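Deliverable D5.2: sample structural annotation.
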Amino acid sequence: METNSPQAIEDLLNRALRICASQASSLTGGGAALLYTRQPGDSLSGRLRAAAGFRSADEARESSAAFEALVTSAIDTVEAQSQAVIGPLAARLSGASVHVIPLLARNRCVGALVVVPTGEVSAEASANLHVLAWSTASTVDHPSLATQFAALSADAEKQLESTDEKNDELLKLSEELFAQDIELLRKNEKLGKIEKLKNDFIEKMSRELRTPLNSIIEATITVLSSELETLSQSSQQTLRNALDEGTAFQRTLQNILDLWRIKQSEMPVEIQELSVTDVIDETIFSVQDALGNKPVEIEKEIPAPLPKVRGDLSKINQILFLLLDNAAKFTDQGTIKIGARHDGERLHCWIHDTGIGICPDDQKYIWDEFYQVDDRTSAKYGGAGLGLTLVHNLLILLDGDSLLQSEAGVGTRIEFSVPVVLA
């Protein structure tokens, strides 16, 4: 396909709009973003072209319908609009506001950018959002401007009697097109530098922190295994504490890297044959150290024999570990039940604990990055507040869903399902 064909240009525009929506979501702390365009002949409310920060395509479409009146008003009046969030996002972003920024190019509205931040937006992020809106408007308007330029060029060749008039208009459009090209290059260069800084940071963190951390952990294990009899009890305990802290830090670092890879669409889904029962057994074994000496028992709940299935073994294992480790952390006594069943199309798994539970006001925030119920909980139980966020993102990647039931002081049950096929 030629790169200047209508379909190729449309594909490039769609890709650019998806990138813009993703950048808008990042600038609002991982919030939701929608992008609309309006060209001559489109409806007043415009056409939904891209979305980011939603749990599913259905949630994006339902949110778009809920915001239709606000988007129409912003495009019609060419003024920014804001109101309290409504629709499906209201359940998990209670108290948040939805903001609509008109996309202006050549003194006309070519669409709208809708953002729903997860919290207060800094002045720098707000300024970057308006820069992104300007850049997006220019991107949307660019094909139209180029089409007008081409049409006028062809028309000028056919109508020699009006050459001077057409040439003046052609020159004006040429200058505008050139100016937009220059500005787009500048803005894209700036956004590209920001993206490169993020990538460089993640790469450097991976190299500079993980490598020495792995060496420290391996050295600690070597000393404990080879010099155990010559070490005093206090020295042994100190080394075990250091090993636990190092392993926890290594896990937190890996969670950050995994979240970044998912957001950059760099984490592939790898399908292979797996035994769910074996995965559950491995998960239970992996969290035994987290329980320590607490009077807590882990029980398996498997109502019927589970067949071998085909799915992403590592990600299902990771989700189960993160949920079970979280339950072990917040359960001081009682039981933790881990179970699974297969209904023919989806694998259903659950973790049910008798831990501290989650009050209703906090339940809608537990999937957010770095969220902790309060400082006392963070100080007592530790953690960076990334485990459940990673679970949520992994389930989106696997086209899965989740259900949370919890009561403060009683316990918590989290169930999730992912599509699988029989091996």
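Annotation notes: Residues 272-422 form a domain with the Heat Shock Protein 90 fold (CATH 3.30.565.10). Residues 163-226 form the longest helix (64 residues).
The annotation will be released with the project's public dataset once the embargo ends.
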